[in-house]
Amino acid sequence: MAGAILTGVLDSCAKTREAGEEPRIVRFIATVNSEGSAKRVKNQFSKYSDRLEVIQGDNVKAMKEADVVLLGFKPYMIDLVLTVDGVREALAGKLIISVLAGSPVDKLNAAIFHAGPRTEDEKPFFIKRAMMNMAAEYGQSMTVLETNPFIPEEYEDLIEWMFSQLGKTAPVAPELYDVAGVMAGASGALLSIAFDGMLDGAVSQGMKRADANKILTQSLISLATLLQNEHPAVLREKFSSPKGTTIAGLLSLEEDRARYAYSKATIASSERSKEIGN
């Protein structure tokens, strides 16, 4: 996800520069653990080498030099990254954007302040959580942004701009962040099960998988457009004709409790996100 964000923001800033204007962000730093990862990132973003620095094995140095810090590692690495000496001081007074699943602000704060609470003379930092999906790489993500009334307006404006380069955004309250994150992030994987099943059905009826995939992919894009304007139940009613093919398929799905299965999967994913955060 961090790579997708970097791609979207770098591309946007490059277009701004080409238009003769000053981009909102002029310098980027990416941190990695291994030499292999460093080479991969440098190769992937080689055309932006004049504004992207890749640092291997020194997160604290990058945090010190940055004005905005993006946390884009695996959630289990929180303590490995944030309890390191110097992190607390490096983050003081800065905006921290976290795209870590199942990692509430309290958990991040606990790691950063593991050695003791913030003192009166320490500058506060501001944490903003965001959950996106893999379509960010193509500028078609949905990113949910957890509301935080303590973040300054100029930071909120920067955050909105950043994630708007990757698709659309939606603000959500902290208590709804886990389920909203499932809607934005995990939903694609869940819906791919239905997609795969329909492809299998088409193949069993004699269609080539590649042909079925092309047709179904565009049908989903069409459906997404329709769902922006009408309720799913209204669409199903419009699609269904008496004794028709659509109603036969819908009744088959109801018999197999497909709707309940997806409700259950959404709840399970949301509850798991909460468990990870505890």
Describe the structure.
The strands form 2 sheets. A 5-stranded mixed β-sheet has the order 3-4-5-6-7. Strands 1-2 form a two-stranded parallel sheet. The protein is 54% helix and 13% strand. The chain is globular. Helix 8 (177-204) runs antiparallel to helix 9 (209-227) and helix 8 (177-204) runs antiparallel to helix 12 (258-277). The longest helix has 28 residues, at 177-204. It has helices at residues 2-18, 35-44, 59-65, 78-82, 87-91, 105-112, 153-164, 177-204, 209-227, 232-239, 245-255, 258-277, and strands at 28-32, 52-56, 68-71, 95-98, 126-131, 141-146, 167-172. It has 278 residues and is of the alpha/beta class. The model has no long low-confidence stretch (mean pLDDT 92).
How do you describe this structure in short?
Helix 8 runs antiparallel to helix 9 (209-227) and helix 8 (177-204) runs antiparallel to helix 12 (258-277). The chain has helices at 2-18, 35-44, 59-65, 78-82, 87-91, 105-112, 153-164, 177-204, 209-227, 232-239, 245-255, 258-277, and strands at 28-32, 52-56, 68-71, 95-98, 126-131, 141-146, 167-172. It is globular and about 75 Å long.
Layout of SSEs?
Layout (H helix, E strand, L loop, with lengths): L1 H17 L9 E5 L2 H10 L7 E5 L2 H7 L2 E4 L6 H5 L4 H5 L3 E4 L6 H8 L13 E6 L9 E6 L6 H12 L2 E6 L4 H28 L4 H19 L4 H8 L5 H11 L2 H20 L1
Parallel strand pairs: 1-2, 3-4, 4-5, 6-7
Antiparallel strand pairs: 5-6
Helix pairs in contact: 8-9, 8-12
List the defining traits of the structure above.
single chain; 278 residues; alpha/beta; 5-stranded mixed beta sheet; two-stranded parallel ribbon; 7 strands
